[in-house]
Structures are given as C-alpha cells and as structure tokens.
TrEMBL record:
Signal peptide: none annotated. It comes from the Eukaryota. The keyword Nucleotide-binding does not apply. Transmembrane segments: none annotated. This is WD repeat-containing protein 89. WD repeats lie at residues 63-106. Keywords: Repeat, WD repeat.
C-alpha cells in the first residue's frame, strides 16, 4: 500500500468550534459525516452538536437537546442522509433531521437516572435494530417501532463502552466493556438473558474502542484505556496479534515528542491493512502502519510491530486530539484528507495540496455560556 500522502499534511481550515475558559476550553468529542458529504456533525462537551459542511467548513447550525455527555454521533442510514443519531449519558439516543436541526425521535433508557447512562450505540441487525451499551447492560430496540425488545444485563459487569453490528454478517452484534470482555452475540436468536447465544473473548483490561477490519471484516482491532492495541480473529474467536508497549513502539517511528495516547484505527476498504492514529499532548498526531510478523506457533498471537509514520498532522491543535474523520482511503489522491477535533475546542481540516491556513469561528447564543459536565479523557465513552 502506498504511503498516505505527504509526510506532513497542510492545515487547511481551523475552526474554534467551542468556547470556554482559555485555560479549560470546551472539548470536541466526535466527528461524523453523512454519505453524501453534505453534513458533518461535531459533538461538544457543552452537550450540543454543531453541524458544518465537510468540504467548505461552513457552519450550518446546532442540534441542542442533550443534557449529559454526548457519547456518540452517527449518520447510520445511507438512504436517509439527513438523519443524524446521537447517544448521551442523559440516557437517550436521539434522532435529528439536520435540514432543520430538530429532534424527530428519541429512544430512552428504561431506568433513567444515574444508572441510565448510554455510552455507545449502533444501528444494524437483520431486523433494523438499535443497540446501546449502558453501565452494565446491552439494550436493543426495534428502530421502526421504537419498542425495547431486549435488556441483556448478564453479559457484562461494568460499563459497555462499545457496541457494533457486523457490516456483512448483520446478525452479529459485538460488545466491549470496561470489564475487559468482548462478546459476539447472535441477534437472530432469542435475545433474553436465558436464551441469548454469544461467545466471549477476554482482553484482560478496560476496553475503550473497537472496530472491524480486513477484506471480509473478519478481524477486530481493540484499543484499551491503558493505551494498548490488540487484534482479534472473529472467526477463530482468539487473539491474532498483540502490540506490546504500544506508545513506546510508535514513538520510535516519528521525529516528534513521544506519543502519549492512541486515538483510533483505520483500514482502507477491502484490505487487510491497518493504520494506528496516535498523538502527543502538544496536538501533533500521525498514522502508523501495523505490521504482523508470523507467530512462532498458530496457537499464539503475532507480536505486532509498527512501520515508520505514514503522515503527520501538526500545527493545528495545541492539546489532545480526540477524534479523526478521514475523507477517503489513506492512499487517495484527493485534496481533503481529514478533519480532526480536540481538547482545545478546535476543529481542523487537513489537505494534501498546498492550502493556506485561515481561521474561522462561529458560535450560537446557546453555546456561549459554558455548560458543566465531565470531560475526563477516560470516561467510559
């Protein structure tokens, strides 16, 4: 695979997406873009979602309604690109029409209150389901009727940080938790605590983020809250690769200060390539290619390695980068490469062509006043 563009990408647009005390700015949490690339949703630590045009950075408006930390945003239906879904610690999954920025539907945790936080959600399944991860439960709704069809409270013992429906084997739902377990659930079977069919893989430490990759999405990458990466084989239900001392290893492969944290993983479509996005507290980040030496025996995982950094995004942020949205595969020749958001409240676009930096800031009246809320990096979401 070709290296992902120039070594150092150009900062195209810098937007101060959220405002607060300069010593304690509001955070940018997550970034999601619809399939038509006409709307980009950005969740903030103010409990609001701001909308921008991903090609121009033009501000389109706000979706305001959540009263707790927003744990996820997604445009899940390619056939309905105007529908945005968001989940929150306020115990709701809300559907927004981005054309008028109005809430049009909501799913609610059956037990609202301190134990009713929602930390993750996913849309899929063979019967149009919405799954959510809560403090220790996995909830499943029928998206069309909005009826709760399952409350699985025996799969995990701590916060369920990730839920993902498999992109091709749509009956499979994968869940991950602070308890260190990954469960693979067959949603085509009865979804009751007594009858649910699932298989378990143990990571051994608190899980922060997972994702499918591989030619047939047959593998799962896993990032933990202690900043480690591992890869798991979904068919064999076993660990395929372990990346020991992940931050130390990737730090050897770029010329900047040591890597302090892992952000996400990316895989070009229909390939077995895997890239790790990682950064430092100065706001610089890079993409590192994962390497998988042949293991000494088929029964033990490969000791994963990293190659030299493929590209570096530096000069846009001055604090931790929390989210990255890639506009294409890593080896594409398109100009717009990515948007990033961070704990400095900034939203930055990055280009592979010679762009000129220009700063922009837009703010609506209901976002000027900073709202309270947890912004800790390792909250369950």
């Amino acid at each position: 695979m070709a290296a992902p563009g120039p070594k150092h990408l150009k900062l195209g647009t810098s937007i101060q997406a959220s405002f607060g005390d300069p010593e304690d700015p509001d955070y940018v949490f997550d970034i999601a873009v619809n399939g038509q690339k006409t709307n980009m949703a950005v969740s903030l630590s103010t409990h609001a979602i701001k909308l921008y045009h991903p090609e121009t950075g033009a501000y389109l408006g706000d979706c305001v309604g959540h009263t707790g930390t927003i744990s996820g945003v997604s445009f899940p239906d390619e056939n309905s690109p105007m529908l945005l879904l968001s989940s929150s610690a306020d115990g709701t999954i809300r559907t927004w029409d981005v054309r008028n920025r109005k809430e049009v539907a909501a799913l609610k945790h059956p037990n609202p209150g301190p134990d009713g936080e929602i930390w993750s959600f996913s849309v899929g399944g063979i019967t149009n389901q919405v799954a959510a991860g809560t403090n220790s439960q996995v909830l499943v709704w029928d998206w069309r009727t909005r009826n709760l069809i399952s409350n699985l409270d025996e799969l995990h013992t701590e916060a369920v940080t990730q839920v993902h429906y498999h992109p091709t084997k749509r009956e499979l739902l994968v869940t991950a938790s602070v308890d260190g377990l990954i469960n693979i659930i067959d949603t085509s079977q009865p979804l009751t605590n007594e009858d649910v069919q699932y298989e378990t893989m143990s990571v051994g430490t608190s899980i922060g983020k997972i994702g499918f990759y591989g030619t047939y999405s047959q593998k799962l990458w896993c990032l933990t809250h202690i900043e480690t990466l591992s890869v798991w084989d979904l068919e064999e239900k076993m660990q395929a690769a372990e990346f020991k001392e992940t931050r130390t290893n990737v730090s050897f492969h770029w010329g900047l200060d040591n890597v302090n944290y892992l952000i996400d993983c990316y895989s070009p479509k229909d390939t077995d390539d895997l890239w790790l996005a990682a950064g430092n507290t100065d706001g610089a980040m890079g993409f590192f290619p994962a390497r998988f030496p042949k293991p000494v025996h088929s029964s033990v995982p490969s000791l994963g390695l990293f190659g030299d950094v493929g590209c570096v995004l530096e000069g846009g942020h001055n604090n931790v980068v929390r989210s990255v949205w890639l506009s294409q595969n890593l080896d594409s020749e398109q100009s717009l490469f990515a948007w990033t958001g961070g704990e400095d409240g900034r939203l930055c676009s990055w280009s592979q062509s010679g762009a000129v930096e220009h700063g922009r800031s837009w703010v609506s009246n209901n976002l000027v006043m900073k709202k309270g809320g947890s912004k800790a990096r390792h909250s369950p979401y």
